[in-house]
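Good morning C.,

I know you're traveling, so I'll keep this short. The sequence:
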Amino acid sequence: MAGFPASAHHWVEEIDKHRRIIWALLMRELATRYGRDDLGFLWVLAEPMIFALAVASLWAVIRPPFEYGIPVVPFTITGYLPLILVRQTASYSVSAVRVNQALLYHRQVTPLHLYISRFVVEAAGISFAYIIIVVGLHFVGLCPLPRDILVLIAGWALLAWIAFGLALILGAASEILPFMERVVPVLTYIIIPISGAFYMASALPPAYRHMVLFIPFVHCFELMRGAFFGEFLKTYVNLPYAIAWAAGLTLLGLLLVQFVRGRLEIE
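The tokens, ready to paste straight into the viewer:
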């Protein structure tokens, strides 16, 4: 490549190699999990949509018409689908390497590739499901479109980053410490009430608000809800704090992943 520095050319080749590995693993993950019958890989979209619509329908029946001044259906949808993003990416990271251990005989395939491919499958499916549900409910008059799409994207991306770091930690920990397979489901249930998916920080007494704002997920949910309903409610967002959590979780996850291949080879 004329005029292209050798070191830069090497990095381009490395990035392209990892991209091709992850893409191949992603296609394999879709084929093995969903098969080619019926809806096939479209289940990656259908599953979160079914769950979210079921929860929104239930809340519309058992809850008041408005939550924190927001219509109950959009309030539920804008909380539950991001919550699914965190819970499913964490859950599917458990044993992601162990069940695909044979692939590690190809030395170019690493545990990190396996974690990334699983995360991308879940995150992409839930993201598209989120778009389809919001747009669909908007056309039937049940959900507004976001007033600030860039803020929504920023909140979703930040939540996905935190979820990725958490998935790496829990996935690697489940390979290093097998009992973690039983702990992860408990942790994902604990996330439900504390995440900010079903409450607004502005509605809490100041003392409790101060405590929940230590939870990094809350800032993402507040940011996304602000993108939809910012003119109707007060939101509390500390972006540097949430970004620091995302970076810290990812770094710790990457460090733990380094021990996974060695642990499997010992066994």
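Safe travels,
E.
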